Amino acid sequence: MSDTATDKKRRQLPPLYRGEVEIRADTADDDERTVEMVWTTGSRVLRRRFFGEDFYEELSLDPKHVRMDRLTSGGAPLLNAHNSWDARDVVGVIEGASLEKKRGICTARFSKREDVGPIFQDVRDGILRNVSVGYRVYKMEQVEGGDGQTPVYRAVDWEPYEVSIVPMGADPGAQMRGTDQTAPNDCEFVTRTEEGDMSKTDDPTKEADKTRANPAETPATPETVDLNAVRNEASRDALKKERQRIADLEKIARAAKIDDETLRSWKESDITADEARTAALDHLHEKSEEVQTQSQRADASVMEDEREKWIRGVEDSIITRAGLTGLITDAAKARGETVKLDAGEFRGMTLSEIARDCLERAGVKTRGMDRQKMVGLSFTHRSSITQSTSDFGVALENVMHKTLQAAYATQPDTWTRFCKRGQVSDFRPHNKYRMGMFGRLDKVMENGEFKNKKIRDAEKELISAGTVGNVINLSRQTIINDDMGVFNDLAAMLGRAARLSVEVDVYGLLAENAGAGPTMSDGKALFHADHGNISTTAGAPSVATFEAARVQMGKLKDPWGAEYIDLRPAIWLGPLSLGGQARVVNDAQYDVDVVNKLQVPNKVRGLFSDIVDTPRLDGNPWYLFADPGTAPVIEVVFLDGIEEPFLDMMDGWRVDGVEWKVRLDYGVGARDWRGVQKNPGA
């Protein structure tokens, strides 16, 4: 085996890049906008086609071999993918760098420019993870290989000068990037050769090396490749093509009316002009379909608006002619609303004339049509817009519904003044619970423990909802005869009847068990001596009887008997014959029971916030109720909380016309006996 010799050769070497390094996202500082990076590990990478041969490159991390002045100066640039054409390509600065534990570490600070913000965000989120370092090599030494094997060169004099954020790790074999405009530099290559083989080589480069080994001979001229010229030519060609692409994209965007944001995204992407044309055609197709759909919707909307206007006009005409204006406006006023009725073109039209107009609008020719057939068809002919009930039928149903609701809302009642409103979700019996009181909290001694508070079973009562209702009809004869009584009589009466149904049931509940009220869950009537709610001071309304009932109610305890409820009477309920006396006692400044004596202040003055007297109670008994919101005694529950009667229309089977079903789903039940006192009277 021949002895090993060394051969030195100088060549022009361009700037190099390697991307086997990474960003430490977990070190990101949002306030300072800094992050720590590993910019090199010096690992071995393959360099291809370098001066006719491939070789492996290693970077020595011996501090004596690395020129760190630029990176440690605090001014080395942090670039966007090694681009340096524009100042905007600089996204930050390298604030410091060092070599430690066979790695190059640096701290990069990102610019606060708006366009750099997204890059920093992606770095801290771990989306952009790759870094590439740009460096120059001034001396390489062969450390392995040769003799048919790919040689390994180690850079023992090299200089890092910039770090870049890159979307993906750069090709380790990359020699340069087209965007770099820095000229190549001289680099000394120290090669190991076998002396015995050097005389046999046919490689002219090696022959030149042999010649340079002889000090008597003149050194060969360094091999120079004008990479700068090649690079500039490629850059000019790429720039020309990019300008043409941008011009084509702008032309396509203008023709297709593409928005600025989309055009901007095209320019920033790699989309070609052909791809942009395809996207523009898709955009135009979508816009065309959208315009067509909007046009269809607009037409349908206009037709629907005309239909609704026709229905409202017919409704107002029927309400006005039926004399229901006052009822409808009073009900609206009770709701805090205002109603403006305008019959317009339908003013004075009969029901049969309105039916004919409905059919004519729907394209049905009615000339010469028998009135019986015409009226019948007006009920069954479907709307061209909704494909549902005819517009004439809808208008009639709306009038019936408004009349029904208005009559229901304006019908006086008394149950709402002393009963609680509630709701149930179905017709099954529902539990209404009465919880007790905890009493006082337990005392906790120093360093003592908190004790559990026992919760006893609650009392409960059952309440269920049922259905009441009736059917009314509107015959063809009624339409032909223009009989408005079906609206101002039948519909209004049914609305009032629905309201009165609840009223009757509430007082019927109080009358159960010969006036003792319904049977409660304990097997005793609502009013029972064991419940402590029958006054022991019987008599007509007076200061004495009111005071006795007040005291008796205030002494009642909760369901567990743990604590006084301390209730106060708020509502007086009794027959009409006693209502006047109750008001006198409640409002008097002085005790009306005191006769021929000095005036004595009335100690029960203003005890009641409401005096309810009704013909549905007779005889001598009267009642004191606490506030139903605090201590409910009787509760009226409505299915799903709907308190108004429901109206449903169907073509008549039993009559020649149309039928409406009116129903109300509700239930009445007793909740508790503690919030009421009954006085049997004198």
UniProtKB/TrEMBL annotation:
Protein name from the UniProt record: Mu-like prophage major head subunit gpT family protein
Top-rank taxon, per record: Bacteria
Coiled-coil parts of chain: 232-259
Annotated Pfam families: Phage_capsid_4 (PF25209)
Swiss-Prot/TrEMBL keywords: Coiled coil
Start and end residues of each stretch annotated as Disordered: 192-221, 285-304
Biased composition annotated in UniProt, kind: Basic and acidic residues: 192-212
